[in-house]
C-alpha cells in the first residue's frame, strides 16, 4: 500500500496526511538535534518514548480540560492529531532559571523564580528562533491581543498540570516549551496545544539528586538520552510494551 502523503518534515517529527479531513498523522523520529541542528544524532528509541510520553501528557491535559491536538496513538511511533494552523511562536514557561535565561541574565542555573515566567520566541530556524516581546507578536500579526492573553493563560494552566504530575514522581519541572495552534470549529478560531510535550521540550530534574532527565543530556553530553527518557517514562508508568514496566509511579516522600 502506498505511504500516506507527507505534509511536512521537521527535525524530530514528520507529519502525514490523516485519514479524515482536519486530521494528521504525527510520526516521531529517533533524530535528536540541538543548537539549531548544529549538533545531530540518531538516538535509538527516542521516537517511541516521545510518542508515548506526548500521548500521556496531552491526554492528561484533555482530562483537566485543556484543549490539545491529540486524538489517539496509532502505533509505537505514530499518533493521530488534529490539523492546526500553527501560531509561529515557541511559548516557554520557566519555574527555575536555566538554559538561555540563566545565560542571558548571568544567573546560576537552578535559581527558583518568584513566579512562573512566560516568554516567546519567534519560530524561525533561519533566525535561530529569537526571543520576542509581546508587542512584536501583535504588531507582526502572529497573534492578536485576546489570543495572546489566551496563550499565556493556556501556558500557565499547562505549567500547573505538568508541575503537579512531575512532582508526584520526584521530578522538578524547570521549564518547557509548547506550541499553540488554531482550529476553526464552526468558523470560530479556537487555540489548542499542538506539536508535542516530551523530554525534548522540557527541562526535568530529579528532585533529590538534581540529575537531568531531559534533552540537556544530549545538548551537554551528560550520558545516555534513552536512559534518561526511559526513567521519566518508567516513573510515569508509560513504557513501550517490550520494556519492563513498574507497577506504580514512584512517589516522593
Ligand atoms: P532555553 O533555556 O534554551 O531557552 O529553553 C527553554 C525550554 O524550551 C527548555 O525546556 C527547552 C525548550 N526548547 C525547545 O523545546 N526547543 C528549542 O528549540 C529550544 C531552544 C528550547
Describe this structure in words.
The protein is α+β, with helices and mostly antiparallel strands and 253 residues long. The chain has six helices and 14 strands. It has helices at residues 46-63, 99-105, 134-139, 145-167, 216-219, 225-235; strands at 6-9, 13-17, 23-28, 31-34, 39-42, 70-73, 78-82, 85-86, 89-96, 112-122, 131-132, 171-185, 188-194, 202-206. The strands form three sheets. Strands 8, 9, 10, 11, 12, 13 and 14 form a seven-stranded antiparallel β-sheet that branches. A hairpin with an 8-residue loop joins strand 10 (112-122) and strand 11. The longest helix has 23 residues, at 145-167. The radius of gyration is 18 Å and the shape is globular. The N and C termini lie far apart (52 Å). The mean pLDDT is 95. Bound molecules: thymidine-5'-phosphate. Thymidine-5'-phosphate (TMP) binds at residues 92, 98-101, 129, 175-177, 201-203.
